[in-house]
Amino acid sequence: MRKELPKTYEPQEVEGKIYQAWMDAGCFHAEPDPNKKPFTIVMPPPNVTGQLHMGHAMDDSLQDMLIRYKRMQGYAALYLPGTDHAGIATQIKLEEELRKNEGVTRYDLGREKFLERVWDWKNKYGARIVEQQKKLGISADWDRSRFTMDEGCSKAVRETFCELYEKGLIYKGSRIINWCPHCVTALSDAEVEYEDKPGHLWHIRYPLADGSGDLVVATTRPETMMGDTGVAVNPEDERFRHLVGKTCILPIMNREIPIVADDYVELGFGTGAVKMTPAHDPNDFEVGLRHNLETIRVISDDGTINENGGPYNGMDRYECRKAVVKDLEEQGYLVKTEDYSHNVGTCYRCGSDVEPLISAQWFVKMAPLAKEALRVVNEGEVRFIPERFSKTYTNWMENVHDWCISRQLWWGHQIPAWTCADCGHITVDRQDPTKCARCGSEHIERDPDVLDTWFSSALWPFSTLGWPEQTAELDYFYPTSVLVTGYDIIFFWVSRMIFSGCEQMKKYPFEKVLIHGLVRDDKGRKMSKSLGNGIDPLEIADKYGADALRFNLITGNSPGNDMRFYVEKCEAMRNFANKIWNASRFVLMNLTIDEVKLPEELALEDKWVLSRLNTLIREVTENLDAYELGVASAKVYDFIWDTYCDWYIELTKSRMQGEGAENAQNVLCYVLIQMLKLLHPFMPFITEEIYQALPHAAGEASEFIMKTDWPVYDEKFAFPAEEAAMEEIMDLIRAIRTRRAEMNVAPGKKVQLTVAAAHQDIFTAGAPFFQRLAGASEVHVTDATQTPAAQGMVEVITHAARAFMPLAELVDIAKELERIAKEKAKAEGHLKGIEAKLNNEAFTSKAPAHIVQNQRDQAEKLRALIAQLEQSAAAMQS
């Protein structure tokens, strides 16, 4: 049903209404359809605690563009949304609120009451980010929305844990793990970020127990030395061979510890002797296992020194460091201190320095799982876009350590393992057991820890489709088509989804991984709270429209590369939306047709625009299939702004009314609808609003543009000869306009035009366009060899033609000569002043070189201007 478009486009009034109409009509819903090919994207689940930031806006917009494109191509396109329980982030947020608002801790509430409060908080605020995503036009199948701790996902997590445990791929053991004293939980290797930090290297004297001398060791962490249980040297080091098997005295603690030989110690590095602290260093831990060294932990979970730390018990670890160094110096053990810069692991969540601690934790054995996960990428079954990120993935996977999956939190999937108090056996089961599987004792206690958030996220591509149940959706939509994500979570998430899919489903989880970069501020800095440079995407969408924000995020964007966000660009994209709106209003105001049907008789300009459109359809489709969304959007932008609005509408204005008007109206409307379809994935709201106001072709009765067919390249619309001819006419129009502007000729001033060209027929056909668009009163077309006398003529040249206009018709020669004389006199006066400076040795010898050069450059420009003015005056007088 045709309707009139308001004078101005107000996205705030349109977007919400259109989104609700899509929702009411079930436009986003996908079902398995044997007559269609599936195309599936699972949304990277945002944290349930989160609010939409610019990274989400980028991620979600890219996915939505792909899903809208595939939906229009006729695929059963499923965009599966959901949110993540975000263990650490959510628990910390709620604990802060409890402490701030009620003055209580989680321990005051107890586990059960605390978890009730988290669920209440989740139910109250968890939908916030979903509503924000809808504001961007995200066309996800919200009816299928999942949560990593919903019943189905929880069942998948438990099934996976049990399966891996039964295969010996999950185990509990004491290992050195990454520990965050601030978050009070273990971290996986991927959750540790390394920073280069300034520090010190302390050289400490360890006396030999037999009094025959001492060993000097160097350390960056004297606060852990109370846990030293040995000193290691290289077995090939001649200096220490005689000491291997002896003992030395640990300073301050006065404990006797062995001297061992191990290849871990590099020859020629440092002092040659390395203190061994098996409870606080992963390498020391391995050396300790080889030499049966005692393991003494001296740092507690909260980062303070424990009872094994002797006189430093209760101190903060950094306070302890200062105290130890002071005591070593006073007792004569400190040999020297050096400045030393080294890599320090920090918590990705809070930024605190990570503490390597020995702890009993749950681990996934990675070596067996990594093999298949590497194969599917190396053999191209899973393809990264851009391809260079596959190297990032394979390098990490080839060197992966066992994954620590237990977290000392309450919010999350509690580990389904029960330890027997009587026999020590651990029972792991799909159902909560009531007794020990080995001895039958009822004295069993569940492990209090929860699983790493990424454990459930790793199952996302198949748990969301119903696994471990064999559902119709799982059979049809898995493996998914493409994962869209940032390069910063390849380790956290992408790698784990791949090995989980390969292990649980025996099939990779997605065929392609489209990697995008970070959205940075206009100075290239990462957006962060500390810098205060974050930009709220919803504020931008409210001010400029969601379409403008989406188009800003994609234009100039290439896979894998960071982009700078300029607010000014949103203004430009809003102007683009207004340009489309105004062009569409103009077309609608001049329409008399009720149905769009291309005429059999096409004018030259019609064939030109249809041929250009046909090429655009082919190229944009190819670009989107290659995931070059930024390139595709730029081509659509250029066609709409330049080809359609600036040229085709102007070329057809004279044909819009009167005899043959229907032909022009049909082509105008047909091209408008096709380009709206091409633009729709990028700017869904404005395209839908305009589409609903337009007449449509017979048989295209879809109420919504998002349900129409994607345009397809058609050879019958390839008009290369007519396209080339029209381009020659347009080139000449541009050249004439440029020359008239240079001469300050009023746009409305009409002059005679003579065109000399080899292809007279082309420019004869273009005569009406020269009259309307190039200020021609009359047009005479001659053979290229029959040019008029050059005297008194202004000549314009293109590769295909020469055009001549009588100078006297363009300008008042007397007035123009007077203007030129004034401009020349002004330039000569300016030049005289500069030359006086340059002839003054005091100036050229004392002024900075760049100032002198600047004056010389200005003088050259003025001389060129004077010569040009003289040439113009001479031409007028000839």
Q: How would you describe this structure to a colleague?
A:
With 878 residues, the chain is α/β, with parallel strands linked by helices. Helices cover 44% and strands 18% of the residues. The strands form ten sheets. Strands 6-5-14-16 form a four-stranded antiparallel beta sheet. A hairpin with a 4-residue loop joins strand 10 and strand 11. Helix 17 packs across helix 18. The mean pLDDT is 92.
Report strand %. 15-25%
Task: Please tally the helical runs, counting DSSP H or I stretches of 4 or more residues.
Answer: 29
* Helix content percent band: 40-55%
What coarse outline follows from CA principal-axis ratios?
Answer: globular
Secondary structure elements and their pairing?
Elements: H1 11-24, E1 38-42, H2 54-72, E2 76-80, E3 82-83, H3 87-101, H4 106-109, H5 111-125, H6 128-135, E4 146-147, H7 151-166, E5 170-180, E6 185-187, E7 192-207, E8 214-219, E9 230-233, E10 247-250, E11 255-261, E12 273-276, H8 282-291, H9 317-330, E13 334-347, E14 355-364, H10 366-378, E15 383-385, H11 388-398, E16 403-404, E17 406-407, E18 417-420, E19 426-428, E20 444-446, E21 450-451, H12 453-457, H13 460-463, H14 472-477, E22 480-486, H15 490-505, E23 510-516, E24 519-520, H16 537-544, H17 546-554, E25 563-564, H18 567-589, H19 604-625, H20 629-652, H21 661-679, H22 684-691, H23 720-742, E26 751-757, H24 760-765, H25 767-773, E27 776-783, E28 793-797, E29 801-806, H26 807-810, H27 813-838, H28 841-846, H29 849-877
